[in-house]
Amino acid sequence: MSLDAQLLAAHAEGDTDRLVTLYAQAAASADDPDTAGFYLTHAYVFALEAGLPQAADLRAQLIETGREEPL
Q: pLDDT digits over 40-50, tens only?
């Protein structure tokens, strides 16, 4: 199953943990920085909403890529 199909299925199922994982994978495999940032931001938002520990690492990646401001 393609990554897009997996994302759609995870959305339909409301599987937030899986969404975080899939969006992070999509970011890692993206061909350009803007697409990677889009997917990484989604992973971060879903991680925050679910209170997942991955949120801290995802935020650090966003800061590293200049898409989030450090505190």
A: 999 999 999 99
Identify whether 14 is part of a domain: yes
The position carrying tokens 């999509």 is 26
For residue 49 the two structure tokens come to 């909403």
d(CA 50, CA 69): 22
Q: pTM surpassing 0.85?
A: yes
Task: Please state, in angstroms and rounded to a whole number, the distance separating the CA atoms of residues 67 and 31.
Answer: 17
Supply the range of the domain harboring residue 54: 3-64
In this predicted model, what pLDDT tens digit does every residue of 17-29 receive, in sequence order? 999 999 999 999 9
In a domain, residue 46? The reply is yes
Number of domains composing the chain: 1
